[in-house]
Amino acid sequence: MQYRTDPASGNRLSALGLGCMRFPGYQLGRPDAKAAQDIISRAVERGINYLDTAYLYPGNEACVGMALEKLGLRDKVFIATKLPHASCKRTEDFDRFFNEQLKRLRTDHIDYYLMHNITSPAQWEHVAALGIKDWIARQKREGRIRQIGFSYHGSADDFPRMLDAYDWDFVQVQYNYANEHYQAGTAGVMEAHARGLAVFVMEPLLGGRLVDKLPRAAQEILKKARAGHLQTPADWGLSWVWNHPQVTMLLSGMASTEQVDQNASIADAALPKAMTPSQLETIARVVEVFERFNRVPCTGCNYCMPCPQGINIPGCFAAYNASFAYGRWTGLSQYFTASAVRTASPKLVSNCIHCGKCARHCPQQIDIPARLEDVRHRLQPGPVDAALRVLARFRRDGAAE
Ligand code: SF4
Ligand code: SF4
């Protein structure tokens, strides 16, 4: 395993961190404890020493805590988890959430603690007004929090304001070759590094969009340029992030021991500044193709779910993007699966009542109801809509008989 030094603490961190959010079963809110244990065990065997979870990942902290206790690995890893700051209404809430997190994680301290999913400095100002600065200082003094930071999904302009707002130890930003100018972007990574902060990268493969959902033309470009350890789209995407010496660690949400093995092998080989000018040129060509097809920047994180109307929001956006990348029939077929058209009550995008609940939670700040309208126009136009309604009525009548 390749290790990099956290400039703020001096900790030696594996260049690859284990994002725990996507353990099998996460879509149902019930991560599989046995699978999680196997993944964590393999990750530590492969040299990974950083695990990232959050209060808001359903069942995840408890799953991680139980696995570490069973495996006896607490002292071998750094644990990162996050405060659900939007749910903090009073000063006492900081203790309430934090104590619950310690209990779930079966530990007496958190190595890396984050304000979760900051999209605007106003969110920090809200908890600052409740006294969080004093609270953090006390936790640090008492050794219950070791390093403090924030995960960020806001604009490039607001990012330096967040850096100025507190004496942070680290930041966690979305960064990959398709997002150089999106959210914190390259400028944010450089700025945080220049200030002596550790820089942790999330979404290095854009929730899989830079792997299996990469447009065919882009996959062809990468295939033709294969060399050394750069064989698959994942190799290219991860190596591009690690090519930056300013990046302390990259988090990957691994859902199987095989993924751990694959990513750990890339981490061994992908050293800082290792990519050649011609390989970087290849990536630039892939970005050009990707941008032509990437109509909705959904990463499939599921934060917007559940929708009260049952709409599979990430599934519908994936189908919409696929309709540009792979053709309208592929998109339609994916849309029919995502919206359960073979049942008596399909969850079509036209069922959206524009309540806005989903958009409030989207880290990519997608105007979800508006973009679902785009999906409806493309994948559920008049004739398709009429056919789906007839089909649904037929199924309902059949079920009633
Ligand atoms: S706005 Fe539409 S898609 Fe979003 S939660 Fe409400 S009904 Fe569901
Ligand atoms: S729409 Fe936003 S919140 Fe929902 S899955 Fe996509 S990126 Fe995540």
Automatic annotation (TrEMBL):
InterPro entries: 4Fe4S_Fe-S-bd (IPR017896), 4Fe4S_Fe_S_CS (IPR017900), AKR (IPR020471), AKR2_Oxidoreductase (IPR053135), NAD(P)_OxRdtase_dom_sf (IPR036812), NADP_OxRdtase_dom (IPR023210). Keywords: Iron, Iron-sulfur, Metal-binding. PROSITE patterns: 4FE4S_FER_1, 4FE4S_FER_2. Residues 344-371 form the 4Fe-4S ferredoxin-type domain. One of its GO terms (molecular function) is iron-sulfur cluster binding. PANTHER family: D-THREO-ALDOSE 1-DEHYDROGENASE, OXIDOREDUCTASE. This is Aldo/keto reductase. The lineage of its organism: Bacteria, Bacillati, Actinomycetota, Coriobacteriia, Coriobacteriales.
